[in-house]
Design brief:
Elements lengths: L1 H9 L1 H12 L11 H18 L2 E5 L6 E6 L8 E7 L19 E3 L2 E3 L7 H18 L5 E7 L9 H7 L8 E4 L11 E6 L1 E10 L5 E2 L10 H9 L23 H8 L5 H8 L12 H6 L3 E9 L9 E2 L2 E10 L5 H15 L5 E10 L2 E2 L5 H14 L4 E5 L4 H10 L3 E5 L13 E3 H21 L2
Helix pairs in contact: 1-4, 1-13, 2-4, 3-4, 4-13, 5-12, 11-13
This protein binds zinc ion.
Length: 457
């Protein structure tokens, strides 16, 4: 392993130059005018994987291609690790808010500023370079490797599940490693232990067949805006708990160890509050801010629409009111069941003077790792050696449905180890990634493959 680490150190500046080449390709998956660039990024990546010593190919899907890389020289007795990442990026707009152009990587204060530097080209490239460091210096790797890099993550990965399902045998592995997340703070390597799931519904409340004069009809015909507001007000109790009957039935309580680990994190609540600019924080009684964000489910109104919202006054009695409502879910809640419970609840509180339509838009399952298992132990040793600090356990309030999909289809546990930093502007102007984490992270991954080689065997 020392040879691989020395190789990574000796070639650090070339690694960065290559990353900058990758970042210059505007692989914006959401924009069809960039389809050629997105394919160019896939081909660039396949060529770099091949140069690192993997067998690589660009495989077509109904959307953007998947780059597949394989190295199976460790033999049948050695474990196989699947490394997942994505080479597509978010659109860079608004361009005027970038200090330097999004597709011209620029270093300022030890940070690489470019779209994709953190999410996820930088972190994906680190894996390619860690693999190269092993293969170029020793001719071998401690594990068999399958790399899957998709080009549709930023548009919801529509082709990935069918791609993985169709190749479940070829992609069979003992663990899935993903580097597409952030550390809790600078110098604090982090392992992700949970992701929240999502259930998203749209609700329409209707009364009259068209908008009415509020003087001529108001008082005798239901106002859907008022009705919907009253219905929404029944979704929480005064302790911040969700009041939909049955909602908490499948919520697993977290063990004391995980809750202690969350409480031990150096979290500055006042900095968090002033960062969002709200006069105060709120949430479910009995839980801390990080627990509310990571391990407890929520219900949010994402949009409301009704009546007249233009300039000046218009005395209208609206015919309809609409709300977009979403739930962040925790293990073992099921998005379809939660959507059904919401509909049952809304129907039970809706008055007979209105009609109700509830549409389920989309959903994703929550995910939870076993922080006491061998994967976390292996990753813990690798991260501690590379960063000189014991890794912390962190949750993630957002949703990455593909993690659960990989576990379900391939029947292998996932390890989420990310190297971005808080405030790195993923999806926003001036996205950045530190040079230091790029270099150290490659060292951590070199060590991680070795740790997995012994732990998973
Ligand atoms: Zn990403």
């Amino acid at each position: 392993m020392s040879d691989a680490l020395a190789y990574a150190r000796d070639h650090a500046s070339r690694f960065r130059d290559e990353l900058f080449e990758f970042l210059r390709i505007p692989s914006v998956s959401a924009r069809s005018e960039h389809d050629g660039d997105t394919r160019a990024a896939a081909e660039w990546l396949a060529a770099r994987m091949a140069a690192a010593g993997l067998e690589s190919e660009v495989l077509d899907t109904p959307g953007h291609p998947v780059v597949l890389g394989e190295w199976r020289g460790a033999g049948d007795d050695a474990p196989t690790v699947l490394i997942y990442g994505h080479y597509d990026v978010q659109p860079p707009e608004p361009l005027e808010l970038w200090t330097s152009p999004p597709f011209e990587p620029t270093v300022r204060d030890g940070r690489i500023y470019a779209r994709g530097s953190a999410d996820d080209k930088g972190q994906l490239h680190m894996h390619v370079k860690a693999l190269e460091s092993w293969l170029a210096s020793t001719g071998s790797l401690p594990v068999n490797v399958v790399m899957v890099a998709e080009g549709e993550e930023e548009i919801g990965s529509p082709s990935l599940v069918p791609f993985v399902e169709a190749r479940a045998e070829r992609l069979a592995c003992d663990a899935v490693v993903i580097s597409d997340s952030a550390m809790f703070d600078e110098g604090l390597p982090s392992l992700l232990f949970s992701l929240r799931g999502l259930a998203y519904v749209e609700v329409h409340v209707r009364a009259a067949k068209g908008d009415l004069h509020s003087g001529a009809y108001g008082g005798a015909v239901a106002n859907p805006a008022t009705v919907l507001a009253r219905m929404i007000a029944t979704l929480h109790d005064d302790q911040g708990r969700i009041a939909v009957p049955g909602f908490y039935d499948r919520v697993k309580e977290w063990d004391a160890e995980t809750r202690d680990a969350i409480r031990a994190l150096p979290f500055d609540e006042e900095r968090f509050r002033s960062g969002v600019g709200a006069p105060g924080l709120t949430g479910e009684a009995g839980y801390s801010t990080l627990e509310r964000l990571w391990i407890r489910p929520t219900c949010e109104i994402n949009g409301l629409l009704s009546g007249y919202t233009g300039e000046g006054a218009k005395t209208v009695l609206p015919a309809e009111a609409m709300a977009k409502i979403s739930f962040r879910l925790v293990p073992d809640q099921d998005p379809k069941r939660v959507a059904r419970l919401l509909e049952d609840h809304l129907r039970s509180v809706a008055p007979p003077s209105v009609t109700l339509e509830v549409r389920e838009l989309h959903g994703g399952n929550p995910w939870r790792a076993d922080p006491g298992g061998p994967l976390f132990e292996a990753a813990g040793r690798a991260l501690e050696a590379a960063f000189g600090a014991e890794p912390v356990l962190v949750g993630e309030g957002g949703s990455i449905p593909i993690v659960g999909d990989f576990e379900r289809i391939l029947e292998a546990p996932a390890l989420l180890v990310g190297f971005a930093l808080p405030g790195c502007n993923m999806h926003a102007p001036d996205e950045w990634f530190t040079l230091d984490n790029y270099d150290r992270g490659i060292g951590a991954l070199v060590r991680l493959y070795e740790e997995l080689g012994t732990t998973l065997r």
